[in-house]
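Curious: explain these tokens?
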Amino acid sequence: MSGVRPIVLALLDGWGVRAEREGNAVALARTPIYDRLAATSPRAVLDASGIAVGLAAGK
């Protein structure tokens, strides 16, 4: 099977993404594997709160 490459779908539940580092455990942690994957692989971030899931803004 030449040309077939494996694919991985990883869902990081609870892995918040935000620019601020203060109080942000994910941003302050050493995450070399995640950092490498994020820099070299396609990824997407989804909204899981507020209007995106049918709640009032900020909820």
